[in-house]
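User: Hi! I'm a student and our assignment asks us to look at how structure tokens line up with a sequence. Could you show me two examples?

Assistant: Happy to help. In each example below, the sequence comes first and the structure tokens follow. Example one:
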Amino acid sequence: MSPLIFFKCLAEDTRLKSLLMIAQVNEACVCDLMEALQLDQPKTSRHLAELRKCGLLQDQRRGKWVYYRLHPDMPAWALTVLQETLQNNTDYIQAALQRIQCCQQLNGCC
């Protein structure tokens, strides 16, 4: 993965927030991300598909929902960028992160 592709994939608010939240919670269902980002399913899924095409996310279908996690083959430098961004910008995703954690504590909002 080139730095250009990596940063282009993250150059949109929804994709960046989604990736940072998944990095924080390890795995998230589309329904959890919909609630956290307060977006509809098509828009949320479209952004997640873009992140998957970029090689940043890996997905797994479970029933009618798809779960996402960071791609295990993500380059170490890209993972470091994500971790540093998350650690130094918690206010950027704080509200969405609280919503996704609440959803996941309730065994998912699906």
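Example two works the same way, sequence first and then tokens:
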Amino acid sequence: MSTNDRPLVWLHGEVRTPPLSQQARIETGVLLRRIQQGESLGMPVSRPMPSIGKRCHELRIVDEDSTWRVVYRIDDDAIVIAEVFKKKTQATPKDVIEACQRRLRQYDDIVGGRE
């Protein structure tokens, strides 16, 4: 990690093999690294998630027999990971959205609040 890279802050979830395949885990790591280095990713690998909050996005990882999502927020000083989950339906489940919102609020309370 270079001194200009933003660190990853994991609030919930992890990227491991299993349950992700080795290829999906490596792809997730490469994409997170690009985000850390300041690259703005778009579709089809990442999309904004304004339903969760400002600067929130989800990585879209297609695995052998599953589709994974990594919900993250881009802060000035870090990339904050709020959730890693297996996508089972077309829409993001309401409980996932609410859990991400709660985790990010708690994180902001601890680090001094953000907008």
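Here is something you could point out in your write-up. The first strand starts at residue 8 and ends at 10.
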